Structures are given as structure tokens and as C-alpha cells.
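Problem: given the chain below (332 residues), write out its structure.
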Amino acid sequence: MGRSAGPVPVVVMGLGFIGQEIAKAADASPELRLVGAVDRNPSLLGRKLGEVIGNPAIAAPVSADLKKAVGRSSGAVVLHATGSRLEQVADQLLGAVKAGCPVVSTCEELAFPYLKHPRLAEQLDGAARKAGVSVLGTGVNPGFVLDRLVATLGQVCGTVRRAHATRVVDARQRRVALQRKIGAGLTLEEFGELAERDQVGHVGLLESAALCALGLGIDCEDFEEELAPVIAEEDIPGGAFPVRKGRVAGVTQWAVGLCDGQERVRLELTIAVGAESPGDRIVLESEPTVEFEVKGGVPGDRATANAVVNAAPRLFASEPGLLTVLELPAGR
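Solution.
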């Protein structure tokens, strides 16, 4: 897939909180040219994108139709941010691909769709190859901290016997939608009901575990995931809403990759209002053993927007088809 000279034209699909952060990051990037946006929210349709993201210089209107948003910018990259579940956004992705547009998406399950949705993955890969474009799922997690970064560290190791990575996030620093998503403020009973319907917690940890294993050359035949609520031991102020003592403050999740019944990959993620000691830590048991820490942790929302924006120009140097972040160049 070739790349034309000059900044790459991009269209943002989905103008929720993350979509707006992506639009702002795209507008600030010298590598990209923001040409339009797609959203079906009636309150946004017809408005200038610049009004939505706070830059009056952007005159492109928000449209419900991708072709209108792309306009004359044939082959514009779609920066997609509408949902976490692949089945719910697959039609949007396929529509963009069939319109000849490469796609970079924040859809967590798209980071490694072969794990849960092999048929959809094959369909997307085939459509992208036919159209001569690339499709990628990325973000801060999945997409970087607990998978791509782990695999990068593995490049200086011998055979990795076991990988253990943890990420702790104080949700008070994150958007309201995330605080709701992790169940903050719920009773234990309410949390349990949502957990049974798979409607609470972080999406993408299993995908990160699979990417982590693949990037480290660990052949895991099975992946398992668990989730548990974090209970507030005292009233917690400072978030979008106070969390009372005894209520759910967030979640802790574990994803493990198994080889011959032995745990070879272990990822632990805690996202909670008032979580103590936020940060990211990676330990690779190898020769030599490697330990790595990001004190305070990689910022989530802004890092996700930057991951999407920085990946967009890289797609033009990639082979057509469905990609993972492990196939992106190491540098920007």
C-alpha cells in the first residue's frame, strides 16, 4: 500500500470522549491532516468538527456518512473509536475497508481478534487484503503496556520462562465512563449481576495476554481470565462521584497464558477509584531477568489517542490485511 506525499488525511469515527481526544491529537500531529468526522449523535450532526474539539479553524462538518466525511480525500485513514466489542463494530470496520480506507481502531477485541472471534478476524483480513488496506487495533492497553512493551523488553532476553506484568490505575484520574465501566459506586450484588452478563470490567486483557505470549515466543495453548471487585475500605472522594465505604471502588482482573498446564504469562490489572501506588511493572524471568517500571503508569486516555494517531501513518508501510501492534515499527 503506497503513501502519498504530505500529511496523511484522516477521519475520526466516533466522537465520544476518546474520539475527541483522538481528533485533538490528530489535529496536533504534523504527520496527519484531519479532514472530517463521523458520528450518529443528533446533537453533533452538522456541527463543525472544530466546534466540538475546540479549534474553530477546523471547518469540516460532523457527518453520519463516511463517504461524505472522506470527501475528496480518497484513502483517508479512519481513526475508529466507537466500541470495545468486535461484534458490535464489525460492520463499521468492514464498511470503512470496503470504502478503501485503512483503519486504526480502539476496539479492544480487535487487538487480537483471533482469540475470541476467529471467523470475524478472517473476514476482516480477507476484506482488507482485497481492498489493499490495513486494519489495526491499538491503544494503551491492549496495544502497549501489557503486550507490545512486554514483547519489546523480550528482545534483550534469552528464552523467557515466565512473564509477569501488572498495571494499577487510579480511576479518579480517568473519564467518568471508565469509572462507570469498572463498577465504581455499585453494591456487591449489583456488581455481581453485571459481571454475570459480562457488562463490567476491562475489555482486552485476554487479548493482551495472547499478544504478550506471541511477542515473547511463548506457545500458550490456553488463556484464562478472572475478575473480582475492589471494595472501598472507607469513603473515597475525588472521583466523578463519591464512593461510599463498603461499595465497589473498581476491579482487579487477571489473565494467564498456560503451556502444558504451567503458567507462562500472567497479567494483573487493577483499575479502581483511589487505587494505591498506581504504576506499570513488568518482570521477565529469563537470562538475564529483566525488570521494568513506569512510576505512576502510562496515562490512559491521552496515551490511547496518541497510540492511534502515531500508528496511522505507519499503516502505509505495512502489508494489507488485519495487523497486530507487534507488526508495527518500533519507532514512530
